[in-house]
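Course exercise 7: structure representation. Students receive a sequence record and must write out the corresponding structure in token form. The form below is the worked example handed out in class, using DoxX (78 residues). Read each field label carefully; the graders check that inputs and outputs are placed in the correct fields and that the protein name is recorded exactly as given.

STUDENT ID: A-19
EXERCISE PROTEIN: DoxX
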Amino acid sequence: MAEDENTPQHAADTTPYTPVFDERVRTIIYIITLVAGIVGLGVSAFGDPQVGAYISSAAGVIAAAFGVAYNPIRLAGK
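STUDENT ANSWER:
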């Protein structure tokens, strides 16, 4: 088993990942996109479903982009 109980065995020998965006920036983006997703749901339910779907989809894409932003140069081992 890996030294750290929280590290899976298959990840024990990998180089640690360093996110491109700061933790605070990601948190702010996640909160904004969460609110936008909820607004999109409301617009879908009580307004124009196409506009609501667009808002919700855009919020999801933006949140995902900030969550998985990856730059191999930023690996901690380099």
